[in-house]
Design brief:
It comes from Porphyromonas macacae. Keywords: Acyltransferase, Transferase. InterPro entries: ACT14924-like_Acyltransf_dom, Plipid/glycerol_acylTrfase. Pfam families: Acyltransf_2. There is one protein chain. This protein is α/β, with parallel strands linked by helices. Helices cover about 45% and strands about 15% of the residues. Helix 4 crosses helix 5. The radius of gyration is 19 Å and the shape is globular. The model has no long low-confidence stretch (mean pLDDT about 90).
Length: about 280
């Protein structure tokens, strides 16, 4: 029987050139990142791949995830699905699972811990922003291949988990890359809104990080903990109307178009809120 993958914080840190660290620091990080429970999941469900593995994760956490306005999903899934990124892990898993079930296949652009999980490698597309140039070129080629295909592709245009900004939980400004890709590969854009939040503990840690000037990598350590705090949650993903790629105004600054589509995403939250009123 093939041995299942196991994740070790010490190997990740030392492999990134930031270690070694004192043993007590590793023990603390192992606890914060739920290393033992993640490895239990990999031992138990590691034989599954892609959408099946995601379904097992959703079952393990005993969470519910459903589309609102699923009739808006285009018949042809060759689109770029863009969404806010409130959770940092389970949102990508839930959306990929639902789109994968609906269309039969899915690719989703992610970074961080999720891409380290081998059972998800056939679905998740890596983002390498710095470091090894060979890895970066390989990641670019993998993304181009997915974009040229007929498979649906999901993206979090903010590139990072939502933060508390001006008293509201919201994404950072959206990057314009998805618009360039929509034009280049002739893919319509489907806005989604994921209804959900992390715990106050996460946002308080982010405020401390900002005040102390600590790099973003620090806050990502809390994301696995947020995932394990989400057991038995009930998530809704609100589907917006598709935006034809031909309608993207190339003469307009794409940063402004990205901002407008980000607003459409958050307008979906309001639409869902009105739907939920008695």
């Amino acid at each position: 029987m093939k041995k299942s993958q196991q994740i070790y914080v010490s190997e990740i840190i030392e492999g990134s050139g930031k270690g070694p660290l004192p043993r007590f620091v590793y023990r603390l990080l192992e606890k914060i990142t739920h290393q033992e429970e993640i490895n239990y999941i990999l031992r138990t469900y590691g034989h599954l791949k892609g959408v099946e593995f995601m379904g097992a994760l959703i079952g393990y956490f005993n969470i519910k995830a459903n589309f609102v306005f699923p009739e808006r999903l285009p018949e042809n899934g060759r689109c770029i699905f863009v969404c806010n990124h409130p959770l940092g892990s389970l949102d990508g898993i839930c959306i990929s699972y639902l789109l994968g079930k609906h269309y039969g296949d899915i690719r989703y652009v992610v970074n961080g811990l999720l891409y380290r999980l081998k059972p998800l490698r056939n679905i998740f597309l890596p983002v390498v922003l710095s470091g090894d140039e060979k890895k970066r070129r390989k990641a670019v080629e993998i993304l181009k291949k997915a974009m040229r295909s007929d498979v649906p592709v999901g993206v979090f245009p903010a590139g990072a988990c939502s933060r508390k900004i001006n008293g509201k939980i919201q994404d950072l400004p959206w990057r314009k890359t998805f618009l360039k890709q929509a034009i280049q590969y002739e893919r319509d854009i489907v806005p989604l809104h994921f209804v959900g939040f992390n715990s106050p503990k996460f946002y308080n840690a982010e405020l401390i990080r900002r005040k102390m000037g600590i790099k973003n990598n620090y806050i990502s350590l809390f994301l696995p903990d947020q995932m394990f705090r989400s057991k038995e949650a009930d998530y809704k993903i609100v589907v917006g109307n598709p935006i034809p790629w031909q309608s993207i105004d190339r003469n307009k600054h794409l940063e402004n178009t990205a901002r407008d589509i980000r607003q459409i995403c958050y307008d979906l939250q309001e639409e869902y809120g009105k739907l939920s009123l008695p």
